[in-house]
Write a structure and sequence with these properties.
Blueprint: H1 11-20, H2 25-30, H3 33-58, H4 62-95, E1 104-105, H5 108-114, E2 122-123
Helix pairs in contact: 1-4, 3-4
Length: 125
């Protein structure tokens, strides 16, 4: 459990990096690589499941095939927004020299989702 060092990274740069790389790059730049991998996993697995089930159901009907895709895309957008808010808050706290753990989450909603997958997650609101 190590605190993140100040790196001079502007919070908006971390948000842009997260947006471009499925919620991973901003966390890596901040030093939360493990956390970033878990966030990426939780964002990508539903998209893959939606693609697979959409392809299977698409054999029955175009409407049934589209539903899993729509749900997966909605989940990805919602979860991606949560990750961008969290990475911004973490980067802002690091730049203000506040103690932030390498497994620390600043956003309560994201923490509640991620603690089910990552048992080392810590809420540092």
């Amino acid at each position: 459990m190590a605190n993140l060092p100040k790196k001079g990274l502007h919070p908006l740069v971390a948000v842009a990096a997260n947006f471009c790389c499925l919620g991973l790059a901003g966390y890596v730049l901040l030093g939360q690589t493990r956390k970033g991998l878990f966030v990426c996993l939780v964002a990508v697995v539903p998209l893959l499941a939606g693609a697979f089930s959409g392809a299977l159901l698409g054999m029955l009907s175009w409407f049934l095939g589209a539903l899993p895709w729509l749900v997966a895309i909605a989940w990805g957008a919602f979860f991606g927004l949560l990750a961008m808010v969290d990475v911004y808050q973490v980067a802002e706290a690091v730049e203000k020299d506040q103690a932030v753990d390498e497994n620390g989450y600043k956003l309560d909603v994201l923490y509640k989702i991620m603690v089910k997958v990552d048992k080392s997650a810590i809420l540092q609101a």
